[in-house]
Amino acid sequence: MSTSRPLARRLRLLVDLALFGLALYVLRRVLSEYHYSDVLAAIQQLGGWPIGGCLALSALGYSALIGYDYLSLRLVGKPLPLRQMWLPSFVSFAVANSAPVAILTGGGLRYRLYSGLGLTPGETARLTAVNVMTYAMGLFTVAGFAFLLAPLQVPPELHFPVHSLQVIGALFLLLLAGAFAVSIWLRRPVRVWRWRIEMPPPRSLLAQLAVACADWLLSSTALYTLFAAAGATDYPRFLSGFLLAQIVTLVVPLPGGIGVFEAIMLVLRPPGVAVPMVAAALLLYRVCYYLLPLVAAGTALIWRGTARRPEGVAPSPLQDIARALVPHLLAVLTFLSGLWLLLFGALPSDPGRLAWLGRLLPLAVIEGSHFLGSIVGTGLLILSWGLARRIQGAWRVTLGLVALGIPAALLRSGDVGIAGILLLLAFALVAARHAFERRTHMTSEPFDAGWALATLLAIATVGVLAEFAHQHVEYADRLWWEFAIDQDAPRALRMVVGMGLVAAFFVLGRLVAYARHRPPRTGATSNPPA
To answer: Which of 178, 370, 464, 521 is the most exposed place for a label (fewest CB within 10 A)?
Structure first.
C-alpha cells in the first residue's frame, strides 16, 4: 500500500481537528457575553409547541430522504416496495447525517444494507451517485432562488470570496437549466473529466427535483420553527443563511458539520434575535434532526439484528446484515452516551435536586459520584472503539462501566434522564452480547485514527462547555479543594481532570503495549558477545 494514503488520512484528521477548534473558538467568542443560564432560560422560553413542530418537520424531512432512494432504485432498474427499502434507507441517512466517527459513512452502510436486498455493489454505487445528483439539484434550485430573491450580505469575518450571494444563486440556476437542457435535447451520457454522467429523462428529473426541494425546505423549516419562536420573522433571509451554512459544511469533512454549522448560523443570526435564543434553537435542532433519528435508527437495527426467529426459519438477508452492523451502531450509541454523561456533568446542576440529595446523602458520596461520572464517561468514549472491533473484553468493561454510570448519574445530581439512557444502553449491550465474539486483547488492536479524533473532539467540547458554563467564577487554587453542595465550578474542574487522567492512562498503556510488541527492524544486527 502506498504510504501517501495513510499520510493523507492523518492530514485530513488534523484539518478536521483544526476546523472544529476554529468553530469552537467562534462559538465561544460569540457567546462570551452570555451565561449558561441564559441559554437554559431560552430553551424553556421556546416552549413545547415549537419543539414539537421541529420534531414533526424533521420526521417529514427524513421521509423525503427516503424518497431519494425510492426514486434512485427505479432509475438504476432495481425497484423495491417501500416496506422493504424504508428501513435501510432511513438507517443509512440517519447515520450519514450525524455519525461521530468515520466508520459508518452513509455510502459504506448502504452497501451492506442494500446487498441484503439483492443489489450488487455496482448498483448500490449507481444508486448513491443518483442520490448525490438529486441532492445537488435540490440545493441548486432552493439556494438559487433564495440567494437571488433574498440576497444575504456575507459578514467579512466569514472570509467568503463574494460579499453578496446573488452571483452564486444565478450560477446555481444556470447549472440547473443546463442539466434540464442535456436531459431534454442531448439524451446521451455526458463525460465530465473522469466521470460519465447519464441524465435521467425529464419526467424523472422533475420527480427528483420535487423530492430534493422538499428535503431542503423541510429541513430548513424544522429549524425555522425554533427561530420563529425566538423572534425571527423573515423566512427568505433565514433560508439564505441556512443554505449558506449548509454549503460550507458540505466542504468541511466534520460529520453533520457539527460546530461549524452552529458558528455560521450564530454569525448570520437574524437582526433583533438574542444570541442565547439562537443558541438554544440550534441546540434543540441538533437533537431533533440529528441525534434522535440516529438513536431511532440504531434502535431499529439492533432490534432487527437481535430479534429471535422461529426454529427452522432461516434469517432474512437484511437480518444478517443488521446483525453484522449491530456492534458498530452500539459503538456509536456508547460514544454518544459517554458524551452525554460528560456534558451534563460539566453543566451546573439543579439547585433544588442537589439540596434534596444533600439532605439524604453525605457530601462525599455526591462529590465522588460526580468524579466517577467523568471517569465512566471518558471510558465509554474510548471503549466504543473496542466495541466497533467486536472485542469481547471491551464489551465486558463497557457493561461494567455502564453499571457504574447509572448510580453515579443518580447520586451526583439526580440525573434520571442520563441514568435512563445508560439503562437502555445496558439492555442493548446484553441483547447483542453474542455479536462480540473476538477474544483478542485490546492492546493488540490498532486504535483507529477516526476514533481518536472523535474522542479528542468530544473531550475538547466538554472542556469548552465547562469553561463557558462557569466563566463568571474567578479561578483560584482554592477551587480544587472546595467541597460544598452549591459549588458546581469546583466539581466541573475536577471532572475535567478526571477526563484527562483517563485519557492519559489510556495513551500511556497504548505506548507501553506498542513498545512491548513492536517488531524488530529488518536488517538490524546485534554486537557479538565479548
So the answer is: 521
